[in-house]
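hey so i finally got around to running the thing on that chain from the lab meeting. sorry it took forever, my laptop kept dying and i had to restart like 3 times. anyway pasting the input first so we r on the same page abt which one it is
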Amino acid sequence: MLIVFVEELGGGCGQFIEQISEILLALTQFSASDNIRNSAAGALPALIKCAKTAFPDKVAEMQIMAKKYSNNIIDAMESETETDCLICQAQALKEIIEEAGDNLLVAESVTQFHDKVWTFINSSENRISDNRKYEQENSNVEEEDDGLDEEDLLVLKEENKNEF
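ok and heres what got predicted. didnt touch it at all, straight out
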């Protein structure tokens, strides 16, 4: 809901960016709801856009803000278990980088960012492989109670589908 105010008011909520940031940054790792984590991450790029509109001369401060938001999202991604949250977080990172403009990332930051993205991709591939292996190991079990039923198979397929 807070994002609606930020988007609608634009630069008009510039004086409240710091307070809104504190709230949203805390919610990017809110363990009780993946919807809240998604919304919080998705709102951060709008705050940068708001800052650009409200304070067009403060480019350095806006880039510091973008780095802070990016680091927060990357930290959240490291402990995230839901694929759709990871997708929302990656999209938010992309939008933050786009909003922040040129010179946000130096060569070392790009290398670190690349390494993190590569780690996330490998983790996703490992989850897909583990799901497939689990499905194969449990599909041919003779006792019905120990094997996977149709619903279990659908859940595994949905999890793998989300990874792509």
